[in-house]
Design a protein that fits this description.
Layout lengths: L11 H10 L7 E2 L16 H9 L13 H12 L4 H4 L3 E7 H16 L5 E5 L5 H7 L4 E5 L10 H10 L5 E5 L12 H14 L2 E6 L8 H4 L1 H7 L5 E6 L11 E7 L3 H16 L8 H10 L2 H31 L4 H4 L8 E3 L4 H11 L1 E2 L5 E3 L8 H16 L13 E3 L2 H11 L8 H11 L30 E2 L29 E3 L5 E3 L5 H16 L21 H4 L12 H15 L8 H13 L11 H18 L11 H10 L3 H4 L3 H17 L3 H17 L13 H25 L17 H4 L1 H23 L8 H24 L12 H32 L8 H26 L9 H17 L9 H17 L3 H25 L12 E3 L33 H11 L24 H4 L6
Parallel strand pairs: 1-10, 3-4, 3-5, 5-6, 6-7
Antiparallel strand pairs: 2-8, 7-8, 9-11, 12-16, 13-14, 14-15
Length: 1074
């Protein structure tokens, strides 16, 4: 029988250790197995342990099956804290294990026996044993990406989405600190964000914590675990003392189970006792007795803590030293993120071949995934290690067959025919000359090629949605505008077109097979269009993942049609005082820029309602008021406390009851004025929870009721009081503003033409600041109407008419700019803080500029992809438009950052989130244009990420979706940039034959005469605010003064490449200076 047994799989780590141990070369650097080494490269025994080993006889008798109780108590206190409530409540049970590996194996055995059908989810990359340990007990293991596309940050969007989509009662394996192999840990905010999802879906968490004390400190490294444990979640915690006590061979560890009750904890411990008895009977005693002696004495414990501090300090010094030497060798820290990582390990983005050559040529031993043990570095060898890594990178540049992807990255292969095209375009016709030689020359001669990506900010969300193996495929219906062959030659190119607006609609399908239209002006649809455009031109396969950011996916509202009309929702009516407070909350947040209720009439209804003997749903004539009351209360509660558990939105029961009572079309006409107000209120709420289609429908209903009441026409003052006239005006203009905003967010045309509207704006001289704000809001919305109806038309062609419409829109912004700056300045004369109303109006203003420039931006992108204009400069006036858009986007993000610092961000309403996504998306695409200098993208990506994280931490699930969309857009921008340059950049893995799918774009150094229009001007952080200073309006003025002669040419003579300056500019009038 034994002769039939085959060998097991090779263990790469022990193979690595064997090779390193037998390497006698004096230059040897062992960066492999995870053992803390001293400056001499030797195993370091802790002094506190060595002293006791020499003084005491620790004994060699058997341990109890579950281990030494005192050791286990001290171990639990190290993890959870001495004053932890779960210890006081006896909700944690502990058993001794054969180090951390034994703890993981015992946890897997328990789960495999008790819950054999449960799915186990593990983030990749991870410790090499996590997956096989669970597979060994017959459990199914699924994976998700642990790092985002930068390789520098946790992919929270992927993790959260996997938690949401995983079957209930799944098992998630997480690392508590000092992540192996990446060194990238979750922040405290990310741990807190994770808890809500885990609790809602009843998952069990296994936390592997093998390096406590080697990151930031004993308590700091356990902070995330303690938050989990005290949240009421069920946990299994695998603890190891191999590293922090240097007891590698003593195999000292523990498994802790955190239950919801002391009874459950006792039952779990007894089950673990049975498993231990039938597998290895008991654990080794020597190490645990030593740990107990140290931890039970305050002086010895303090000595141990100080030794850990010394070890941490040395690890951090080694990180800084390696980073500095790699930077000196041309490999930037922003690409690697070594300094920010924690613990023993860092995972360099090296290929297996590069790792092999580092061992064979330089005697530097490391595993094939690029993981290095930072403790293996020393002051003596770190410079040589960095130089060796740089040397292998340089060697890769000269090897066309060398892979250019990090471990776990996907590849997009470029065909030989495309390489031939690149060779032809490069001017090197000699077939014996490698295309790499040509592109390498460009790399050396061109200052715009650099190794550092412009974004290295923290991303809450990633492009990966759902667990691997469980996500459904996304089926996209490509519009004709996007079905472009990547092999098409320049001679076959059609005229420039705006890919956002085509006669044929573009759709995506969600995981349920439902189609979702990609509207031309929608920022979400814009990001999807860019990604589709890229895939079409570069022949990149779609990812097999479901789109989760489509309509109504963030929150589940209790619609009557879903639960059945017979099951009516009961609303939790607030008290009278609270109702008045909620009314004032809505007034504060929305009262100056929208009209949702007539205050005196509404409050009179509130008092009348609470004066009734019993609080019940109103009927008859008061039914509409009661629906309005429920919706105002819901908005107030959501604005105050947007945090929710699970997928139910804030105030779900109030809105659900309002929907129960909402009458049909005939019933709405019992009081059409209140009906319009409540429909505006309802649509705002729905848009805020990302039910975009429903919000658009209800605001359309409100607008049509207003039209049937003639509110869009000037009123006859003989039959109306001034108060009534003001109310009707404000109702109309609120409908108008919301219709324009929701149309923009949907990508749909506006419903009413401005020529049909004759009702005047509110009169600011008479009515005061409130209606002054509303009047400015209307004027900005009128500009938005021009953008929607003129620039985003259905023609799809990018010709002189589009250019003129862009000029018209920008001209209107110039007209409004001085008045906006005077009446609603961004900076207060007294406090220096930002007014919420001023911020709202300025954000809307700048959004118009960004939207107007977006078709130009994506048309440039498509032209770059089709015609490979990697060395073309952009026409000066077009630069001016991009400068204006960049300025507006950057200003918007500064405004949002100030609002965030003042705790004035609208965490529930959708507009701040939309402005954030729209602004950073525009900057992302501008950064990918050829020859674009660095304009500080990282600063603005950081702001956007911070805003997203703040919103997500307060329960705004839509913020996580937008972060995910942004990450995909960033990846797309890098691929466009890499494609346009078609030349290698100095990175850790460079090869023109492959485009790295999980990388980021290179950071471009400023170059003279290369898109200088994107430079930052002014000293104030609001230098781009709407002011009348000449320096502020210069970009727009430059474009407005441009009158190229080709605008008057027949369409067949219109130049295809008018966006670029390297054609005969004198013929077509490209003479306007920047």
């Amino acid at each position: 029988m034994l002769e039939k047994i085959c060998r097991g799989p090779v263990d790469p780590m022990f193979e690595l250790k064997y090779k390193a141990d037998n390497d006698t070369d004096p230059r040897k650097i062992d960066l492999g197995v995870g053992v803390y080494r001293n400056e001499a490269g030797s195993y370091q025994e802790l002094e506190v342990a060595k002293e006791k080993l020499h003084q005491l006889n620790l004994g060699h008798d058997y341990m109890p099956t579950t281990g030494d109780d005192e050791f286990l108590r001290l171990s639990a206190e190290i993890l959870f804290g001495k004053q932890s409530p779960i210890i006081a409540q006896s909700r944690v049970c502990s058993v001794q294990t054969i180090s951390g590996t034994g703890a993981n194996s015992l946890a897997a055995s328990l789960m495999g026996r008790e819950f054999p059908s449960a799915k186990v989810f593990v983030g990749l990359p991870t410790w090499g044993n996590h997956i096989p340990i669970f597979q060994h007990v017959g459990m199914e293991v699924l994976t998700y990406p642990y790092l985002d596309s930068s390789g520098l940050r946790p992919d929270m969007a992927a993790l959260l989405n996997t938690v949401q989509t995983a079957p209930a009662n799944s098992i998630f394996v997480l690392q508590g600190c000092c992540h192996n192999p990446t060194g990238v840990d979750l922040s405290i905010e990310q741990w807190k964000l994770l808890i809500g999802e885990l609790k809602h879906h009843s998952h069990l968490i296994i936390v592997d914590i093998a390096y406590q004390g080697l990151g930031d400190g004993l308590d700091e490294d356990a902070a995330g675990l303690r938050i989990l444990a005290e949240s009421g979640l069920e946990l299994l915690v695998c603890q190891s003392f191999s590293k922090n006590f240097a007891l590698y061979g003593e195999r000292c560890g523990a498994l802790h189970a955190v239950s919801r009750s002391s009874r459950s904890a006792a039952d779990v411990k007894d089950k673990l006792r049975s498993l231990i008895r039938h597998t290895y009977s008991s654990s080794p005693s020597y190490g645990s007795r030593l740990v107990k002696i140290v931890l039970s004495n305050d002086d010895r414990r303090e000595l141990w803590v100080q030794e850990l501090k010394s070890m941490r300090s040395r690890l951090k010094r080694n990180r800084h030293s390696l980073s500095n030497h790699l930077t000196a060798s041309g490999i930037s820290e922003e690409r690697l993120g070594i300094i920010a990582e924690k613990g023993l390990f860092s995972c360099l983005p090296l290929t297996a071949e590069q790792c092999r050559m580092l061992t064979d040529r330089h005697h530097i031993h490391l595993p094939a995934n690029g993981r290095i043990n930072v403790a293996g570095l020393s002051a003596e060898n770190v410079e040589r290690a960095a130089q060796a890594i740089a040397a292998e990178v340089d060697n890769t540049l000269s090897q066309p067959s060398a892979p250019r992807v990090r471990p776990h990255d996907k590849k997009v292969l470029i065909s030989e025919s495309y390489l031939e095209e690149l060779r032809h375009k490069s001017g090197r016709e000699d077939p014996g000359v490698s295309i790499l030689e040509t592109t390498a020359e460009r790399l050396q001669s061109h200052p715009s090629n650099s190794a550092t990506p412009p974004w290295n900010s923290g991303n809450l969300a990633s492009s990966h949605n759902g667990a691997a193996g469980s996500a459904q495929s996304t089926h996209e219906e490509e519009s004709s505008a996007l079905r472009v062959s990547a092999e098409r030659t320049e001679a076959e190119d059609p005229d420039l077109r705006n890919p956002l607006t085509t006669t044929s609609p573009a759709f995506v399908m969600d995981s349920m097979g439902k189609r979702h239209w990609l509207g031309p002006s929608s920022t979400w649809a814009y990001s999807q269009q860019v990604i589709r455009l890229l895939r079409s031109h570069l022949n990149i396969r779609d990812r097999n993942e479901a789109i989760t950011s489509v309509d109504a996916q963030a929150f589940t509202l209790d619609w009557p049609s879903v639960r059945g009309s017979m099951l009516q929702q009961k609303a939790d009516i607030p008290s009278r005082d609270y109702a008045i407070y909620l009314t004032n909350t809505v007034k504060f947040h929305l009262g100056q820029t929208y009209h949702l209720f007539e205050e005196s009439h509404f409050l009179a209804g509130v008092h009348e309602y609470y004066n009734c003997s019993t609080l019940s749903d109103a009927t008859g004539q008061t039914r509409l008021w009661h629906v309005q009351f429920l919706l105002v209360m819901a908005l107030g509660q959501a604005l105050l406390a947007p945090v929710t558990s699970g997928k139910s939105p804030a105030s779900n029961n109030l809105v659900a009851r309002a929907l129960d009572l909402l009458p049909d079309a005939h019933g709405l006409y019992r009081d059409p004025i209140i009906s319009i107000e409540l429909l505006c209120c309802l649509s705002l709420y729905l848009q805020s929870i990302d039910h975009r289609n429903s919000a658009y429908l209800y605001i359309g209903q409100a607008l049509r009721i207003a039209l049937t009441q003639g509110l869009h026409r000037e009123h006859d003052m003989e039959h109306l009081s001034e108060k009534e006239d003001t109310r009707l005006r404000n109702i109309w203009w609120t409908c108008y503003i919301l219709d324009r905003k929701f149309s923009s967010l949907m990508g749909a045309p506006s419903s009413v033409h401005d020529d049909d509207v004759t009702v005047p704006l509110p009169r600011p001289i008479i009515t005061g600041d409130r209606f002054d704000a509303l009047a400015i809001h209307v004027r900005v919305s009128k500009i938005l109407t021009q953008v929607l109806n003129r620039i985003y038309n259905a023609d799809g062609k990018f010709n002189s008419s589009v250019l003129r419409h862009v000029k018209d829109v920008l001209q209107e912004t110039v007209k409004l700019s001085p008045e906006l700056a005077v009446r609603f300045p961004l900076e207060s004369d007294h406090s220096g803080s930002v007014s919420r109303v001023s911020a709202t109006l300025n954000l809307c203003f700048h959004q118009c500029i960004v939207l107007a420039a977006r078709p130009i931006l994506i048309s440039l992108m498509e032209d770059v992809l089709v015609n490979h204009r990697n060395q073309h400069d952009i026409a000066g006036p077009i630069k001016a438009v991009l400068k204006a858009a960049s300025r507006s986007a950057r200003t918007s993000l500064h405004i949002l950052s100030s609002l965030q610092s003042q705790h004035l961000l609208e965490l529930f309403l959708p507009f701040d989130l939309e402005q954030t996504f729209s602004s950073v998306s525009a900057l992302t695409m501008i950064s990918a244009l050829p020859l674009t200098p660095d304009f500080g993208y990282k600063e603005y990506a950081d702001i956007a990420t911070s805003v997203f994280e703040t919103m997500a931490s307060r329960g705004n699930r839509v913020a996580g979706f937008r972060n995910d969309d942004l990450t995909q857009l960033q990846e797309a921008a890098w691929r466009i940039q890499a494609h346009s340059r078609a030349s290698p950049t100095r990175s850790l893995n460079s090869d023109v034959c492959e485009v790295q799918q999980e990388s980021e774009p290179a950071n471009i150094e400023p170059a003279e005469d290369h898109l200088e229009a994107i430079e930052a001007l002014g000293t104030s952080q609001y230098s781009s605010s709407a002011t009348n200073e000449s320096s502020e309006l210069l970009p727009i003025a430059t474009f407005l003064q441009w009158e190229p002669t080709f605008l008057d040419l027949p369409s067949e003579q219109f130049p295809d490449d008018w966006l670029w300056t390297d054609i005969e500019t004198s013929t077509f009038g490209y003479n306007a200076p920047l």
